[in-house]
Amino acid sequence: MQQRSSDWTIPEEPESPFPIVTNFCDIVFGFGRGSAELGIPTANVPLEQLPLETQDLELGVYFGYALLKPVDHQDTTAFRNDGTTVIYNYGRHLNVTNGDFEIHPVVLSVGKNPFYHNKLKTVELHIMHPFHTDFYGAQVKFNLLGRIRPELNYDSKEALIDDINKDKLIAKEVLSRPNFLKYQKQVNC
Ligand code: ADP
Ligand code: MG
């Protein structure tokens, strides 16, 4: 696959500090821009629920595997600063027959999202699976197996979308290699 000039080199197998594996962590709301503006939803997770090594990662795009779990809870409503509401359904509408509870490849952004001038570090996962519903309040366990590229600043939304689509292709290809595929089961225990 063609490399971009900014791409990091991906080794033959995960190299330190990878693999990093998380516990199940809560899916919380972000700024609501992933799906609305980019068509690429990202499940945001609280930094403080992640292993310490995660905090030392350079800002950039990473890849790994993720597994979802619903939480037994009634719907609640949360409010973003801009006044928009977010319904937490705790994953109640996730569907076994749609494969929602299988382990899926993910691209992760560890970033401050310079395109949006965010101040706080965010960790967000785009799970490569066609969900039919959102699942705020559900939990996700995932691993990080390697890194794709540093966080970049973009002149246009289209350029950002283009790069994320390339990130997804790279992640899928690398995660299908036996040396990475074998870490899929790591998120299942
Ligand atoms: P927010 O900024 O609130 O995270 P997004 O636009 O990034 O908003 O949407 C994220 C939400 O979309 C996730 O929390 C999840 O409930 C839902 N979602 C649907 N499909 C996916 C997917 N493939 N990967 C990640 N989240 C998804
Ligand atoms: Mg998001």
What would you say this structure looks like, in words?
With 189 residues, this protein is an alpha+beta fold. The protein has one domain: Elongation Factor Tu (Ef-tu), domain 3 (Beta Barrel), CATH 2.40.30.30. The protein is 17% helix and 26% strand. It is built from 4 helices and 10 strands. The strands form 2 sheets. Strands 1, 2, 3, 4, 7, 8, 9 and 10 form an 8-stranded antiparallel sheet that branches. A hairpin with a 5-residue loop joins strand 5 and strand 6. The longest helix is centred in the last third of the chain and has 19 residues. The radius of gyration is 16 Å and the shape is globular. The site of magnesium ion has 5 residues, from loops.
Structural key phrases:
single chain; 189 residues; alpha+beta; Elongation Factor Tu (Ef-tu), domain 3; 8-stranded antiparallel beta sheet; two-stranded antiparallel sheet; 4 helices; globular; binds adenosine-5'-diphosphate; binds magnesium ion
